[in-house]
Amino acid sequence: MMKRQSIIKNVLTAVMVASCIMFTACGKGQNGGPINTGDNGTNVSDSTDGEKPGDTDGTGTEAGNTQTGQSGEAGPTESTDGKIHVSSAEEFLNAIAPDTDIVFEPGKYNLSNYIESDLDVEDWNKNHRYAKIRNQFDGYELVIQDVSGLSISGGSDNAADTEIVINPRYSSVIWFNACNDIEVSNVTMGHIEGGECIGNVLDFDYCSNVTVKNADLYGCGVYAIGTSNYTENVHVVDSTLRDCSAGPLSIDRPKGEYLFENCKFTGSMFGGSVLSEEKVNIRFVDCVFGQEESNFWSYFEDAVMENCDLQESTYYPEYGYSDEEYETFNTDDLTLVSFDDVMLDDSTWNGFARVDSSNGNTDYLDTYSAEELDTINLSFGDEGKVSFNYFGEEGTYTWEVLDENQAVLKNDDENLYFEMYENSYHSRWLKLQYNNYVIWMIQ
Fold first, then answer.
1. Which residue range forms the structural domain that includes residue 406?
2. What is the pLDDT of residues 409-430, one digit of tens each?
3. By the 8 A CB rule, do 116 and 139 touch?
């Protein structure tokens, strides 16, 4: 038996980190420096979804109406107000630079259509410092890095007039890495494909002084906004964060002040998650919360709510858990899935429960402890290399898929067999056989 808090907070964290899994733990700018895109420049198939009304190419540009920018490419136009006005995905990418105000003309812009059909990704990444294109599992992701003083806004005060979308579900719409003084405003953003996503809508990694204003951020993104690696001072105002597969917010190791004013959180599967090594300063002022967002939050004890509208608490009292409430770890909810449907490279899995095969006794593990002696971790690198930490004992393995539902970790001393499962919340689990134990691991 265990506290329901441990179950739900770890399920939430599993889904969140899956924003990183493939995700933050999967090598997305972990060191706060330039992104290694790992791309060979190969294009994938084009899509015609999400064209701006009147477009002929799906990139937000009317045929025959481009302007010359860098190196003969179509470029943005600087107006008398000192801002860069763009009317295509191509112009937007070329405009990204420090101390720049970018304004999208009203319309719908599919970044993926331009990147996947018209852009030489390898050449682009060699010649552009601030905007990189990263190859994810099912498409490309825009990474803006090392930029200070950048604002991105729609061309009117109505966020619905300007929509920025992408096709791949493993990618964030925009990922900011090592940036500061960033503002996103007057826009709608999301993924074209519905269902379960792995990427967030907006991600901020190693960033500071972030403002999101008058924005509509929608799922299927895992979270509408994800912050990680000590991102500092975030202000979200007059915005809607909705319909995400996990929740509106994922806040990982925040610094400074996080302030949410006059925001609406609705339609997501859960609330959100805050992971911090110390007490954090998070405030919600004049915000409205939907049913699930009112009930399911993880590690949220430090948040302060002022004049907020929350729905009736139906799952636990005062948005927390009582010491008397318990729930059994139920493996009957898990379904075996095929390794053909997942990508393990650059993912990290953390021990959740250890079951003694001889007597069925279950030990619940300190999943995210900073001390290696308290945890079991499995980290998949590239080229088939795996690092396995078992309560401080480190081992190095290679891995390979044996059949549709089973894989193995191998070194000179032993073979460790494992399988992958999925629960009703679409969270992935690894079942690893180690000595006389079955170890259940989550991302």
1. 331-442
2. 999 889 999 998 877 655 678 8
3. yes
